Amino acid sequence: MMGGVSRSHWPNLLSAARIALMPAVLMTAIAGSRVWFVALILASLATDVLDGFLARRLNAYSELGRKLDSVADYMTMFTGIAGIALLWPEIMRRELPWVAALLAAFFAVVVYGFVRLGRAPCYHTWASKVLAAACALSLVPLLAGWSAAPFHIVVGLQALAAVEGLAIAMLVPSHVGEMATVWHAWRLRRESMALLTPLRRSRSSEAP
User: Fold this and answer.
1) Whose CB has fewer CB within 10 Å in the chain, the N or C terminal residue?
2) Which residue positions in the chain have pLDDT lower than 50?
3) CA 201/CA 9 separation, integer angstroms
4) Does residue 87 contact residue 29 with C-beta atoms inside 8 Å?
5) Structural contact between residues 25 and 44, judged by C-beta atoms closer than 8 angstroms
6) What pLDDT sits at residue 138?
């Protein structure tokens, strides 16, 4: 315990702090402060990395934690896009098709989940975690005016990650929780089918 808060709650508190930070991030963009906008976005991304590390270190996984982390990710993305549009409008106009593609890829699994599964899957795949950091890093050369190529590459990889997420949802539609890769989903499906096969044979033999 620290400050009356169980260690298992630390990752959730960091995700909640990231959510609470977003209004301040947006206000810096409205105020026209590029320095404070970048500083607060970096602080938000740092808490994202830290809450994931603590969740693994403390084995503090929970459905609430996954949902908080996902909401924080969504809010950070929308706030970041809004801030870039306000502070770097010329770049946003030029990159708008790529930004739209990024959003479409990011939310494809969410929409599929609500339509087919009645919920938003929170798989937090390895690809999604790596791409979250890669997307943030790709903004450095983009906003500095050096090159848009890294950002375009990340958008393409995000599309592939979305395909993986859809494949996971199709392979194990009843799964709730983290799923590292589509290979892990395929393996889980095979294990589930192997357990069901004897049961089906037993029922078939008992049928008149």
Assistant:
1) C
2) 1-2, 199
3) 45
4) yes
5) yes
6) 94
Global pTM value: 0.83
51/65 Cα distance (integer angstroms) = 9
Residue showing tokens 């799964």:
175
SS3 for the chain, per residue?
CECCECHHHHHHHHHHHHHHHHHHHHHHHHCCCHHHHHHHHHHHHHHHHHHHHHHHHHCCCCHHHHHHHHHHHHHHHHHHHHHHHHHCHHHHHHHHHHHHHHHHHHHHHHHHHHHHHCCCCCCCCHHHHHHHHHHHHHHHHHHHCCCCHHHHHHHHHHHHHHHHHHHHHHHCCCCCCCCCCHHHHHHHHHHHHHHHHHHHHHHHHHCC
> Are the C-beta atoms of residues 164 and 181 closer than 8 Å to each other?
yes
- What pLDDT shows up at residue 69? 87
In one letter, which amino acid is 98? W
User: Do residues 127 and 70 make contact, with C-beta atoms less than 8 angstroms apart?
Assistant: no
- Would you state the pLDDT for residue 1? 47
